[in-house]
Amino acid sequence: MxxxxxxxxxxxxSVMVTVFGPREARSRATTQHDRATLSVNDGRACxxxxxxxxxxxxxxxxxxxxxxxxxxxxxxxxxxxxxVQILQSDGSLLQAAINATTLALIDAGIPLxxxxxxxxxxxxxxxxxxxxTSLEESDLPHVTVAVLPKxxxxxxxxxxTQLAVERFDEMLRxxxxxxxxxxxxxxxxxxxxxxxxxxxxxxxxxxxGARGIPDVDAEMGE
Amino acid sequence: xxxxxxxxxxxxxFVLTALKESIRIDGRQLLQGRQPQLIFGDELGxxxxxxxxxxxxxxxxxxxxxxxPDRPFEGxxxxxxxxxxxxxxxxxxGRLSEEEVLITRMLEKVLxxxxxxxxxxxCILAGQQVWQIKLTLHFLSDEGNMLDCACLAGVAALRHFRxxxxxxxxxEVIIHDPTERAPIPLSIHHxxxxxxxxxxxxxxxxxVDPNHLESLLMDxxxxxxxxxxxxxxxxxxxxxxxxxxxxxxxxxxxxxVEIAVRRARVLSEWLEKKIKGDWxxxxxxxEVH
Amino acid sequence: MFSIVPLAPRGREYGPTRHHPSVQKDVDMGLDLDDDLDxxxxxxxxxxxxxxxxxxxxxxxxxxxxxGVIASVTGVITRVNKLVTVRAVKSRYSPEVGDLVVGxxxxxxxxxxxxDVNGRQDxxxxxxxxxxxxxxxxxxxxxxxxxxxxxxxxxxxxxxxxQAAGGGNASLHTRSLKFGKLRNGxxxxxxxALVRRLKSQFHSLPxxxxxxxxxxxxxxxxxHVKESEQLGEEGFDAEGVYSNVxxxxxxxxxxxxxxxxxxxxxxxxxxxxLTDMILNDAYDWVIEQGISTADILLGEAGxxxxxxxxxxxx
Lengths: 222, 289, 314
Hints:
The complex is a heterotrimer. By secondary structure, chain A is of the alpha+beta class.
C-alpha cells in the first residue's frame, strides 16, 4: 500500500501519483549518507521510438523540481519513490503531474518547504491562455511553469517553442498569479481532508475516552 | 552506474566562498564565458568546437531516400549523439544516463523542434526521393557545459555543410558531382545559440558557462537558446529550460534572459565571421587549381 | 477549468462518511460552531507560517525561515509550553524507546537481522538481543551465528520492543517470553497514527482471539493461547518458540480471526484509533447484525459499523 497518493484532473487530463517512503534504500549504489534519495518513475508505456528520452526527461524534470523543496536531509540513507501514471492525456501533462506529486507527498506526510504549483500558459496573438489542452499546446507557443506560492519564485520553467523575449516575461508574471489560484485550491483540498481525518480520530477518541480508555490524551500532548 | 565522485568538502567550501566574493576559480568574470574555438575540417560539414577543454565534433552527412508516407514533401533531419566514456568516466557506453538524456533532448529541441533546418527544401521528388540529413555529435571531453559546445558545433556544421546539386528531369533525378557543379548549402531558417547559466544558493549572481567543477557544485542551471540575434532583429527565445533546482523570481529570470541575449549576440556574430572566413579560404584554394 | 481530487489507494478512503439521516442530525448538532473554528485554525499545511521564531521553539513538522516558524507537513498544530510541533495525520512509523512493534525479517546479516517495521529505515535485531534455546542467560556462541536462520529467517514475523532509537533507526530486542516469533494468525496493517500507546499492547478478545497492537501499525491477530501454555516450562522450549508450524486451528477460531482483521481494516479505513474496547464493540456489533466476514469490508456494512462504535455518545 502506498504511503501517499493523489490524482489530479485538469479538464480531460488525468494523472495519478503514488509515493512510497521514506523507506530503506533498496540499492546500495544510490544510497546517500546525508540525505534521502529521490527517484521518479513514469509508468507510461513507450510505443514510439525516441519516446524513451521524452519520458526520462519528464521524470527528471519532476525529480529536480521536488529535490530542493523536499526536506530530504531529514531521512539519511533512505529512499522516496514517486510513481507517476498518466491516466488520460489532453495536454498540460507536466502541470498535472507536478500538482499531483505535491498532493501525494503531502498525503504521505513527507516534510515539504512549500507547495509546488504547476501551470501552463500560451499566447494566442496577444491573448494569453492558461491550462492548455493538447490542441492548444500543439499550435501555440507555450511555457510550463512550477511556482512556489509562498515566495512566488519559479522553480521550473520550460519553453519549447519560439517566443519573443518581451512576451516571455509577461507570461511568467501571469503564471505567477495563476499559481496562486491553484495554490488556494490545493490548500483547500489538503485541509479538508486533514480536517476530516482529525475529526474522525477525535470523535472516536471522545466516545472511547468517556468509557475509560486510559492514556490517550497524554499521547496528544495537550 | 559509476557515480561522479563528489569534490572534497574543503574544495567545495573554497569554491563557494570565492564565488560569494564574485571570484571564479579559473579567473573568469561571473558573466564571462570561455571563448570557443572552431576547427573546420577539410570536408564540408565537419566541425570541431572547443570550449576550454570541453570538445565536441559535429558531422553532417546527407543521403537520398524515400520520405515518410505521411510527410511526402519533407526531407528528414535527425540528430545522433551519444556521450561515450571518452568524455568522462561517469558515462557508460550504451547506457542512458540522466545527464545524457537531458543534453540529447535539449539538442533535439534547439536544433530540430525549433525547425532550424528547412525540411521542405530537402524534398527532391515529392513522395519519391528526399534528402535525409543526419547530424552526428561526438563528445570528446567533458570540462563542463557540453550542451553549449555541442549546440555551437552542430549549428556551425549545419551551416558549413554543402550538398551536391540535384536536377529533376521529368521523373529522373540527376545528381551533379561536386567537381562539376558547386554544391549548395542547406536552407537554414535560423541559427540558434545556446547559453547556460548556473546558480549557487549563497551567491546572488548567476554565472555564465560553468566549468566541470562548477557544474558539480551548482544548485540550479538554466539553459536558454536564442535566435534572430543580428542587431537589426529582436531576439527570440527558442528554448528556455529550467528544470527544478533553486527557485528564482520572475525578475531574476528576466535578468538572466538579458544576460543570455548579450552573450548569444556576441557568439552569433563571432560564428558568422568564422563561417564566412572559412568559406573565403576555400574559394581561394579553388582559384589556384 | 481544473479540479483536484485526492484519491486513496484503495477505494474511497477519504470519501465523506455518510450518515443515516436520523443520526446525521445528531452529528450536526454535536458540532457547535466554536468547535468548528477551533479545528480549522489548528490545522495547517506546508508553507504556512505558524508563528514568529522568536516566540517559540520549533519541533517536528516545522522549519524556520527568516523570522517565522513554518509548517512543513499538514496536520494539527500542538504546543507544549514554547515547543510547537505539527503532527502529520499520516506518516511512517518513527520508533521510540520502549515501543512494542510487530516486524518482518527482511534480511539475515552478520550476527543481526534486518526487520521491516514500517519505518523510514529497517530496524536491527542483534543476535545478542534474542533469547536463545537452552536458558535465557546463555552465552552466544559462534555456532549460533552460523545457524541464525534456524531462529528467524526472511519473511518471519516477530514481536519485539524498541531498545534504542535515534534518527529513524531502531534496534530491537526480544528478551522476554512475551516477544519472539509469531504464528497461528494473520497480520493487519494500519497507519501507525491509529495505534495509541496503551497500558498493554497485548489483548485477548472474548471471542478467542489474541491481539498484538504494534505501535508501528502492524497488528497481529491470532488464535488465543492460554496463559499457562504461553509461559511454558522454565527451560524455554526452543522448538516451540522458533517453530514455523501453525497449531491446529478450528474453523470457528479461523472465522473469528478473519472477522477481527476485517473489523480492524474497516476501522482504519475510517481513521478510527484502535483500542481493544472499540474492537470489541465492533466485533459484537458485527455478530449482532449477523454480517458475514466478507461483507464487513463492503462500504455500507462497514460504515454502519464505524458509526455504531464511534458516533454513539456516552
